[in-house]
Write a structure and sequence with these properties.
Strand content: 15-25%
Number of strands: 11
Distance between the termini: 72 Å
Order of helices and strands: HHEEHEHEEEHEHHHHHHEHHEHEE
């Protein structure tokens, strides 16, 4: 009997050791998430690492800043613009060997160092929960060596960070995956120190500088100049970008060139359908399927929907219309609301193409596929309340 008890005790001890070892292994594999600090402190830390550890010798370095963006949506915001100003001031005050130059084709031809950066709302634990921190990523890309020569990263709290998109991005009616934006984000977030810069990013740099000029002119309400920049950029290598299509539509609409605007929006729709995904910002009253009470915002909606119906019919495509909501509210209510909004949009489309009923379905995702995810329910997370048109098999 004693031997039986001893055997059982030994087995229990052995199991306890195994469990402790498993727990220790799990804890070793799960890194402790960084502690977010106030935004200004986080930006200083990332910038100090970026410039202080740059492996570029001791000579004078020409530096251009390719405007920083939101890492999820690709949009510039009040915060990313402010980051650019802060970084410029920090360089001038503390790192004088870096000489900040304009982001222009002329300077890019001299192969300077390019600073790219993203500000991305994340769940600090790394899960699918609420976005409760910002990840700041800064990267220096040396065009002479075509390599990443320095990086700086930090986590900040959400407080006092204005991520409202700038006017061009706020006015943009459509969101789509864009190869130029993907290449920018990859260069910043996905390329390790010493790694080669994504060629897709380098190849588009000259066009990107011109597109940036167009955005600046648009936001200064110089719509003719903006339109000229967009049209010129589209003719350049790497210039056939989603941002150019969007800007051409926006500038044409602002100039009152209705036919040009309709054609440009149709071009946006064709691009989205060709990638099997078209995301349109249609703004609803909170908790309802009615559009917001802002005629200036909703005035083009009938034209947008008409163009979507027309282009879908021309292609003989079948659609899944997907509603999305922001994170505010109960999950089951958001899922139901997203479905009813998608159904509402499908009904509007069917008024223009009654023969399409058998080629469309309406579904909803609630807030499961938020792009921004902060749940502010304002202009900063309008993309989370989008309606998506997915091409599906008939």
């Amino acid at each position: 009997m004693w031997s039986m008890f001893r055997s059982r005790d030994a087995h229990q001890v052995l199991m306890a050791i195994v469990l402790i070892a498993i727990a220790g292994s799990a804890s070793a594999q799960a890194p402790v998430p960084p502690t977010p600090v106030p935004y200004a402190e986080a930006l200083r830390k990332a910038a100090s690492d970026l410039f202080g550890k740059a492996n570029l010798g001791t000579d004078r370095v020409e530096l251009v800043i390719d405007p920083l963006i939101d890492g999820a949506s690709g949009a510039q915001s009040a915060a990313t613009r402010a980051m650019e100003t802060s970084l410029t001031e920090l360089v001038q005050a503390s790192y004088p060997r870096f000489v900040v130059q304009p982001f222009s084709a002329e300077v890019l031809a001299r192969d300077p160092v390019v600073l790219v950066g993203t500000l991305t709302a994340v769940n600090n634990q790394g899960g699918d929960g609420p976005r409760d921190a910002f990840r700041i990523c800064l990267t220096l890309a040396d065009l002479k060596s075509r390599t990443v020569v320095s990086k700086g990263v930090a986590r900040s709290t959400l407080d006092n960070v204005d991520v409202t998109p700038t006017q061009y991005y706020r006015d943009s009616p459509v969101w789509a995956k864009d190869q130029a934006t993907d290449a920018y984000v990859k260069t910043c977030q996905g390329t390790p120190l010493g790694g080669a810069i994504d060629p897709a990013y380098v190849d588009r740099l000259t066009a990107n500088a011109l597109i940036n000029d167009a955005i600046v002119e648009y936001e200064a309400q110089h719509f003719r100049e903006a339109l000229a920049f967009y049209r010129t950029a589209r003719r350049l290598p790497g210039g056939d970008q989603h941002r150019v299509r969007t800007g051409t539509y926006l500038a044409s609409a602002k100039l009152g060139r209705r036919e040009d605007a309709v054609e440009a929006f149709g071009d946006l729709v064709d691009y989205g359908l060709s990638t099997d995904q078209l995301m349109v910002k249609l703004l609803f009253k909170p908790g309802t399927t009615q559009f917001i009470d802002n005629p200036q915002t909703t005035e083009p909606y009938p034209m947008w929907l008409s163009q979507i119906a027309t282009r879908v019919r021309q292609k003989g495509a079948c659609l899944e219309i997907v509603g999305h909501t922001s994170r505010t509210g109960m999950p089951h209510l958001n899922e139901r609301l997203s479905v009813t909004r998608a159904q509402f949009i499908m009904d509007l489309l069917l008024t223009g193409m009654p023969d399409g009923r058998g080629r469309m379905i309406a579904t909803g995702r609630g807030f499961k596929e938020n792009l921004v995810g902060t749940g502010k329910d304002d202009a900063s997370d309008a993309l989370d309340r989008r309606v998506e048109f997915k091409v599906i098999g008939c």
